[in-house]
Amino acid sequence: MAIQALLSIGELSRRTGLSVSAIRFYEAQGLVKAIRTTGNQRRFARADLRRLSFALIAQKLGLSLAEIAEELATLPLKRAPTRNDWQAISRRIRGALQQRIAMLERTRDLLDGCIGCGCLSLARCRLYNPDDEAARAGAGPRFLLGDRPRRKAK
Ligand code: FES
Fold first, then answer.
1. Closest residue (by CA) to atom 3 of ligand 1?
2. What is d(CA 48, CA 26) in angstroms, rounded to the nearest whole number?
């Protein structure tokens, strides 16, 4: 590939809206791979615009960097990914996104019920967590994830 057809890190930053340091971070995580000029400057393929844009959106959707890197690793390195390549990724992450959407909807509905309620009822409120009982069920917002307190309401 001709070096002129490649993008500098500054150009990539302007096109994606990512900071130069963020692009370096993504490169260090293996999401994109720069080639080096004879002056040791980074140059990126145009296809990296889409890789980074995907990473940005996927992170906003809640995918971890490891999940994103795993998906991007399925794309070909020696040619620009095709529509079919991207559609294969889309099909694979659809299930994970559906689970996240369902959890967000459940959380929204629970919070809708609590805002303006304020009862913090031990029997029914998913926000009330006396003595950090939720920690016994595991990490994260356990009651919002569906676990119920074991104690009976007084
Ligand atoms: S504050 Fe009343 S149900 Fe959560």
1. 125
2. 11
